[in-house]
Write a structure and sequence with these properties.
heterotrimer; A mainly alpha; B alpha/beta; C mainly alpha; A: mainly alpha; MetI-like fold; flat; B: alpha/beta; six-stranded mixed β-sheet; disordered C terminus
Chain lengths: ~325, ~625, ~280
Amino acid sequence: MPRYLVQRLLQAVFVLWAAFTTSFVVLYLLPGDPVSIMASGGGDTNDVSPEQIAELKQVYGFDKPLIESYGDRLWHALRGDFGISVQSGDPVTRLIADQLPATLQLTSAALLLAVVLGAGVALAATYTRRRWLRQTLLSLPALGVSAPTFWVGLILVQLVSFRWGLLPAIGNEGFRSVILPAITLAVPTSAVIAQVFAKSLRTALAEPYAQTALAKGASRRRVHFGHALRNAAIPPLTVAGVVVGNLLAGSVVVETVFSRTGIGRVTATAVTAQDIPVVQGLVVFGALAFVLANLAVDLLVPLLDPRITAAAPAVAR
Amino acid sequence: MTTDTAPLLSIRGLRVSYRAGDGAPPAVRGVDLDIAPGEVVALVGESGSGKSTTAHAVIGLLPPGGRMDGGRVLFEGTDLATAGERELRARRGRDIGLIPQDPMVSLNPVQRIGRQVAEVLLIHGLADRASAPAEAVRILGQAGLPDPGVRARQYPHELSGGMRQRVLIAIAVAARPKLVIADEPTSALDVTVQRRILDHLQTLTRQAGTAVLLITHDLGVAADRARRIAVMSEGEIVETGPVRQVLTAPRHPYTRRLLASAPSMATEPVRVRARAQARARALPRAQALPRAQARVRVREVAAGEPAAEGGAPVGEGLDSAEGLVVGEGLDAAGGLDAAEGLVVTEGLDAAGGLDGAGGPLVVAEGLVKEFTPRGRARACAVDGVDFTIRRGESFALVGESGSGKSTTARMVARLTDPTEGRIRFDGQDITALSGAALRRLRRRVQLVHQNPYSSLDPRRSVADAVTEPLRAFRVGDRAARLRRAAELLDRVALPAATLRRRPGELSGGQRQRVAIARALALGPDLVICDEPVSALDVSVQARILELLAEFQRDLGLSYLFISHDLAVVRQIADRVGVMRGGRLLETGTTDEVFASPSHPYTKELLAAIPGGRHAVPARSA
Amino acid sequence: MSRRAAARFWLRRPGLVLAVAVLVLVLLSAFFPGLFTGRDPLSGVPAERLQPPSLHHPFGTDQLGRDLFSRVVHGSALSLKATSLAVAVGLVAGSALGLLAGYVGGLLDDVLMRIADVLLAIPALLLSLALVTALGFGTVKVAVAVGVTSVASFARIMRAEVLRVREATFVEAARASGSGPLPVLLRHVLPNASGPVLVYAAVEFGTVVLAVSALSFLGYGAEPPAPEWGSLVSGGRDYLATAWWLTTLPGLTIAATVLAAGRVSRALDGETEEISR
């Protein structure tokens, strides 16, 4: 295996470990006794009997010194065991794995939509010579990032489902049920992609090499798609981590709005019930998604830009 | 003169303006210019003169916000100013090639070299997909690129700046155009590279009978390369004519000013001129001296005996003043008293009588600076450099980029620590000075940076900048410091009102004056000037150099002067050290080094100074 | 800048004028809700429940007959308080850490920046949710949870600026003039480094409004009767088919505020140079 790949993988492992540790610190060390929070299940702390607490303490290893229980949890986490959901009693890992397909379906549909929309808007806005069209297209991303996701979802439900009766408002049933949630989730993500891509395209078109190409007699289309496009593709790629974060975080809201099952829904329920093991598992899962996205970008970018080798990537710095 | 044939390109009444705020003057205001087939015409002007805008207007590639307001651009009888996009595209690259300004950013970084050259041929149907790659390699070879086959498969970042410029030349001439527009084609390159590339371009275009419109700020380059020169200022062509005529009999005052200030064209160094002025001032006094007495002194000088005049400067300096008198070409009678003023500035050598008391000001021994770039082997930026700067002397380090000259200067300024070697300042070892002792040193050693656009804090007023050293050493109270700042500004010929301005409101030359005022505020002994004029236009350069020379004469300063520009060095330095690859190749007095360089590299550097073919006899300034 | 240039600057940017007006109105409503409405946001008139927008009730009424406009106006107090607190947490903590990392450098810099990397690797909303889980629910806790997620970004920007300015020629010139480290830091580095950080704070304002209202929408904000923008939208979910105004209008208020904040921050980022020139 090439050395840079090993290096990247080690970095990824470090980030995952650090995410685990951070979530441990946040969830177990912050004010408030984690065990009584868990036992209360988001309700009143006084309802819990001392016996229950003692039992929970033992189950989660909090009868031992803190550092020991940290080591304990880390050791289990390394083997994919993030503990047991306080709420349902299921292992956290299985809970996440069970819900993953539904969320993957939603996020990948949204990602596809976001890339097509975002890149389309950016390319059209920089290519058109009509001033009004360019201005209109360029103002779309600002709208997209400003509208609250939950609100966009509700408006869509209101119009498309209730008023026009075109698509189902809630649920996981079939392809038709994914359309509205995916659009909702794609709105802010495509806006981010469009913003970054339009900016990098404009930068690339203003570079002297674009002028060189024009001086060769190249057409606008040739300069745009033959020269600027590839140079401009790198910045939007490097925000992949942000995009993945948007999609994951967005799924919490979108799945709630559309009453879908999935990881987002699990998250919302776990937070409401203060189900600490589940929340920790989800945080590490989020970091894993980020790390994987960036690894993919690290491997992709050198193909686009010969100046960047995978050993010295432009990303994650 | 132009030939009888119809001109290839004929610009008539060209007017271009930029959309910037109302009231901004148009960038090009009615330019007329003819270029005959095969003719090389240089368009010379300083930044903002509109020369680049004119060139770009010819091929309809004005920067955003630029608009052609009027005039005609007749190319082979077709008016390109009113031509449609399709017509222009057919002409660009095919009939008119462009060599852009900065080779480092003018090639597409993610495309192989060969493909970028082949693109011109493909666009204009001069080759098909099968034949274009081989054609591109052939053209790259023609442009003087070594191993063109290998280069064609490389990416721009794998090539040096000089090689990239050759690639751009290849692109410009690939379609055998009738006209090549070269927009400052080499100003971003080192002089030796610059010369080779211009030579090659000249050969290529001459062989093919291509006309060239050469845009340059350097009158020397223009004089070397063009048949005709058009001088541009503030959007207008103020003078045009054959090279010799423009150089020897300039008609327009602006051309005369430009000629007078072009460092590569002038033969009378600023330092000599400054001394001549001192001499002129001293001469009446000297002539008032009884001749006999003067002769006695001269004889004493010649004899090398210590003076009996009780510590008078002349007495002190006698030992070496002889050389001085002769060197300056003064007659024995008039010279001596003048030499009094000269002794101070000339500094003389350490063995001589004058410096006997203090020794040299700076002694650098075996300076080494190593860097360890990330993931790479150690590299030596400076590799064993020794030199001495005498009191009142201006010592210049010249070299091309990467020669280690700036790093050396920064070590002497103690802004970076040498890996090895010692620096002594006024007898004291300052190599490892730190804390309060280092700050005390700063009082005597000041710095003028290369770029006056970045060396002044944009948020602080000029008064703040100039009083900063005074404040740092708690000199005087606020009012006293402000008075001193006003005084200093007056010395650098800036109005006192400038005190309240911010750097953003000043021109480059004005900012550099402020930086000089700041460097002089504490009355230092040594001022380190790191390329102090390279960011400025030539006419501004000359005035700043004069100012520096004047201060040296009046205040007895020593300079360590860093420059890549031999012409500038000749203007200001008493002694020169030539650096390359971190080593000091040779040192000597400026006259020695320029007249009889000993190292081959120095010879190459000297030969590369543009304008050498048309050295103009000294003019009265 | 001359008065005429200023007038021209604003006249050419009607969108910016509108954005500033929206922000001013929203801020005024947060601090002086009485200026806009005399109605009680908490008590309703049962007879007037679920009425569509009218002159009498500009935003209509909810299922308890409470005036929605009054609830949105009073909701801006809680929502903007949370937003300001969150931005302040990020700005103050982030700038301090970034300044420290950039100016001290060395091991401290490495450690702080690795921590920042990790914080950035966890999607912001997930991190906020983890913090909310640990801290509990409520407006202030939500604000802190959102603020913490932006600490890393602020720290990075401040550090990058400090490093940039520290290497700037004018800082070297100040050192070469003999100025000590502290005067250089205070006179040159900090003033020149803080611009982008403040601009980012303006950018962050909109993002934070969204994050705070998302958490409020999910039900982690203020206790029910108290109005918050996010919870107002969420409260209208059950009446989507019958009372469109209950979700649409509060959501529109959020969107308008974020949009206005974004426009103003873009102006701060680049266009003000034109004013001061």
